[in-house]
Amino acid sequence: MLPGMRLDGRKALVTGGASGIGAAIAERLAAEGAEVWVGDIDLMGAERVAREINGHSIELDVTSLTSANAAVAEIDDLAILVNNAGTDEFGFFPQTSPAQWQRVIDINLNGVINCTAAALPGMQQAGYGRIVNISSEAGRVGSKGSAVYSAAKAGVIGFTKVIARENGRYDVTANAIAPGPIETPLLMGAKELGEVGERLIDNMRSQTQLNRLGQPFEVAAAVAFLASDDATFITGETLGVSGGLGMV
Ligand SMILES: NC(=O)c1ccc[n+]([C@@H]2O[C@H](COP(=O)([O-])OP(=O)(O)OC[C@H]3O[C@@H](n4cnc5c(N)ncnc54)[C@H](O)[C@@H]3O)[C@@H](O)[C@H]2O)c1
């Protein structure tokens, strides 16, 4: 194996892989030798990323178990599932609506549950699997302007721990990553709130010990590690990739 080819021959599905952090994860896993399926509700975006990494694209709506099952069924011997698809609709809680709460929970929490449910039986049968869930520091410390998002991301951490507990005997590990503020279309979308949004972003930046926003590739490196055989004895953990924002 070439150095740096830790994922040689492994098949991976990255949800929400058409943009931001997911696109960087798809790129990094491919660079380490994985055969990558880029799954996204934005099929054109998924196709663009897949072309760049010589991978595959797949239309996937993580809020639908049927869609998750169909995507996973296309991949024989899926070894790595990265539950990355997510969204936020920034706003102070009283100004947000039940429809927004539902969307945020559906994509960020139910999406992880659906895709994990789809992928687990095959991994259990194979006796091998690596599940990496993209949570958020919002799920550990809470993020102003993101109440329901923080709740959903905390839910992802709890779910990850149980999947880790139940599946160690199949050599299936499950870990979460808690990114801090990462420069992607999602975070920059807060600017649509005008001055309040700018302040939210500045506030998050100043809470990192490095006093900067993170970049998608910095999250992707942590995903590659947890998906690789450098992390064979790590499960049920939540790894902060946040410049120290979530430090206790
Ligand atoms: N950017 C940050 O600061 C930050 C911080 C912490 C955690 N995260 C998490 O990282 C992950 C990626 O976020 P990002 O910043 O790259 O966002 P992004 O908006 O750039 O990308 C999200 C991707 O998810 C896809 N998606 C949305 N709904 C979907 C659905 N129903 N089914 C399938 N795909 C869907 C979008 O089409 C998009 O390609 C999310 O889970 C997010 O919550 C981001």
- CATH architecture grouping: 3-Layer(aba) Sandwich
Calculate the mean pLDDT score and round it.
96
What low-confidence regions span 5 or more consecutive residues with pLDDT below 50? none
CATH class: Alpha Beta
State the domain count: 1
Strand order in space, largest sheet: 3-2-1-4-5-6-7
- Helical amount among residues, as a percent range? 40-55%
Describe the 3D structure:
- With 248 residues, the chain is an alpha/beta fold.
- The protein has a single domain (11-182, 215-241), classed as 3-Layer(aba) Sandwich (Rossmann fold).
- It has helices spanning 20-31, 43-53, 65-73, 98-126, 138-141, 147-167, 185-188, 195-207, 216-227; strands at residues 11-15, 35-40, 56-59, 78-83, 129-134, 172-179, 238-241.
- Strands 3-2-1-4-5-6-7 form a 7-stranded parallel sheet, sandwiched between helices.
- Helix 1 links the parallel strand 1 and strand 2.
- Helix 1 (20-31) packs parallel to helix 2, helix 1 packs across helix 9 and helix 4 (98-126) runs parallel beside helix 6 (147-167).
- The termini are far apart.
- Bound molecules: nicotinamide-adenine-dinucleotide (NAD).
- Nicotinamide-adenine-dinucleotide (NAD) is lined by residues 15-16, 18-22, 40-42, 45, 60-63, 84-87, 107-108, 111, 134, 136, 179, 181-182, 184-187.
